[in-house]
């Protein structure tokens, strides 16, 4: 009876971890934070695979697998944070390039206008 309760407890814990990982993954989809979505949905799939293999091969290392799964989830959280930071840096670089391009284009337009107005109104000092 005690073994059966322990097995049900570990399966329930796996289900809770899978649910949390999937929920956070879909929260990432809603927020359009794709690294968050990939990390947590990928973690949920890995947990399901671990659970399936444990069931198929009748492995009874539920606690070890659960601990490894939680460690994997923590590592994936840090990877997600890192990926978001990289994405933000790339976005800032892209914006800076666009602003620089716009600034140069505006300077060129101003120079062109200056030349145009000079040609329209010649200096009276040139006589």
Automatic annotation (TrEMBL):
The chain crosses the membrane at residues 7-28, 34-54, 61-81. The keyword Transmembrane helix applies. Keywords: Membrane, Transmembrane, Transmembrane helix. This is Uncharacterized protein.
